[in-house]
Amino acid sequence: MKLSAPGRVLARATAVLVLALGMATGTTGLLSGTEAHALPVTEGSFGFSGDEGDWVSGGRSYAYATASGDRMDVSADGDGNAVRLSVDGANGDWWHLDLAAPSGRTLAPGTYTGATRHPFNAPTEPGLSLGGNGRGCNTLTGEFTIQALEFGPQGYVKKLDATFVQHCEGGTTAARGEVHIDNPPPPAQLDLGLAVALEGTASTLNGKATLHGTVSCNKPVQVSVSGDVTQVKRQRLIRGSYVTSVSCVPGAPVAWTATAEPTGDVPFQRGDVEVAARATATDPDYAQPVTATETVAVTLKRA
């Protein structure tokens, strides 16, 4: 029976849960360093075959390529210690491949022998894990060779050429494969700029302080601007917070305006205040938050 797309998703999720519970307690994701957002592979291929009796491959051969409509996603962890490839075949197959250097080392070209199951490999051992379609090793041994590897920022993988051999449960049968990835140069990281105008207003009607300024960016993003206003008048401490959101596009700075309401019964008044400001946005290419901060003295005029 051929499953529909929602059916394949449900079947895959169920298989992942069963596999995880049956193999060990933990996660099959990248655990060393900070896991980065996986990005689609622009041009790549992945394939492996197994000996008769090999559990993961079932003794079959598999081949996938972006040129054939198969989807691949790749990421490195934050310190470049490990790389994960995920494959979603156009035929409904799904696989993952993890390659990791020993703890504290950056993955680099070379041959890594004595690999055990990632992410549960000992700190002195390289890590390897091939699994998918509801199959995986509980324990494994193997080796892999990195012929070429180029990283970009935030876990971006520009190039990866590697071969691997994996033995499940101490057996002699093996799965052998290779991966080739050739991505374009990495996108620039999000750069945010934040400025707070040195003059604002204090309302005599409601006691609120109105602030304004600008944000700038090198790619289109939605920016949240927030912060705190502090004023001392006649030995009274007056505080308030503000938040606003603006759409930022590259080019000229974009204006923002926000209003802070005093937390107590004393209104903001004409005079100097300290303004702490934060601009935050999510990098659309790397799915990572980026923040710019500024703390300045602002003069409030009566409004």
In terms of DSSP E residues, the strand content is over 45%
- Summed over residues and divided by their number, the pLDDT gives a mean of 90
| SSE order | HEEEEEEEEEEEEEEEEEEE
By DSSP, the count of extended strands is 19
Q: Portion of residues in helices?
A: under 10%
Features:
mainly beta, eleven-stranded mixed β-sheet, single chain, 303 residues, disordered N terminus, 1 helix, 2 domains, seven-stranded mixed β-barrel, Immunoglobulin-like
Which helices and strands occur, and which strands form pairs?
Blueprint: H1 5-23, E1 39-40, E2 44-50, E3 61-65, E4 71-76, E5 82-88, E6 94-100, E7 110-117, E8 127-132, E9 140-151, E10 157-168, E11 175-182, E12 192-196, E13 199-202, E14 209-217, E15 221-233, E16 236-248, E17 254-262, E18 271-282, E19 289-302
Parallel strand pairs: 7-8, 13-19
Antiparallel strand pairs: 1-4, 2-3, 2-11, 4-5, 5-6, 6-8, 7-9, 9-10, 10-11, 12-14, 13-14, 14-17, 15-16, 15-18, 16-17, 18-19
